[in-house]
Structure formats: structure tokens, C-alpha cells
Amino acid sequence: MASSQYRIESSSPLRGSLLPHNNSRQIYNDRGLAVAVAVKSLTDPTRQHIRVVHVDTGEVVFETDPIVHDHPA
pTM for the complete prediction? Predict the structure, then answer.
């Protein structure tokens, strides 16, 4: 039986009062809580990539899609 554990992965350092102070990878037993913490930890969702992953299966259950800022040549 697969567990209900989720981890947050990010391309940028995460900051927020909901995160552990020791900056270690936190495992969440609730999918909704993991997604809420991930969203609240973003400082700029238009530029940061973050996702919540089911630990056992590797399934991505939430993911941001940062806006690609193309600059004209």
C-alpha cells in the first residue's frame, strides 16, 4: 500500500513562516497541506518553479508554471 506522504521541490530557496527553520526537506502527510505550504512559500510565482510530489510514486500533484519572459532581440 502506498503511503500518503508528499514533499515540496523548488528551483529556488523557499521562504516562509510555515517552513521548518532547519531548512531540511519536510515530508507532509496531507496533500492539501503540502500544496498550501508550497504556495505560501513562493515569493514570485511568475518566476519560480515549485512542485509537490507524492513520495512513493513520484507523481507530481501540484506544479507552478512560471511565465517565460522573452526579450526581443
Answer: 0.76
- Can you list the positions of beta strands (E) in 1-73? 6-10, 27-28, 50-54, 60-63
Q: Which of 3, 1, 39, 2 is nearest to 18 (CA)?
A: 39
With beta carbons less than 8 A apart as the criterion, state whether 21 and 68 touch: no
Angle at 42 between CA 49 and CA 55, to 5 degrees: 60
Question: How far is it, in rounded angstroms, from Cα 56 to Cα 58?
Answer: 6
The CA distance from 19 to 41, in Å, is: 8
Which pLDDT band, with edges at 50, 70 and 90, does 43 fall under?
confident
Strand ordering across the sheet containing 6-10: 27-28, 6-10, 50-54, 60-63
